User: Fold Prepilin-type N-terminal cleavage/methylation domain-containing protein from Candidatus Segetimicrobium genomatis.
Amino acid sequence: MLQFFLRRVRNERGFTLIELLIVVAIIAILAAILIPNFLRARAQSQVAATKGNLKNIATALESYFVDNASYPQPPLGNTNLLPNYTRALPVDPCSGTAFGTSPGYTYAVPSNPATDYTLRTNWTVAGTGAPCFAAADPNGSNIQYTPGGGLQNTP
Assistant:
């Protein structure tokens, strides 16, 4: 009985080289299809997080405006916005930079700070933030928030 099993193990062969190459080729094709989809989904989630961050800062700015009758002057880190209206200024998920530094978010007020402000991303076509620049709009764009216009794509 034992000889039967030993003979059977010796007669069985493993996979041929052709079979192994076909399996490797199939895995490579699947990876080539899936990896770009995962990267695009990640960039789209970062853009969604950016939009949420801009809206949260806008809410804090509006609360500041209600209490002080004007918007704070940049940079936001030096104002009473932090302890009273928001816990922390968000970090750009696409570039990983702190609020107010390039290529992250920027905050600007016009000459009359009581009227308006602009929150904006500063991504570029190449370099830091490039996946988000492409995911925000098929033609490539940054995201801007103004009180009167809301969220908009800006080239």
Summary: The CA atoms of residues 52 and 125 lie 22 Å apart. The radius of gyration is 27 Å. The longest strand covers residues 142-146. The helical segments are 2-11, 17-68, 81-85, 130-136.
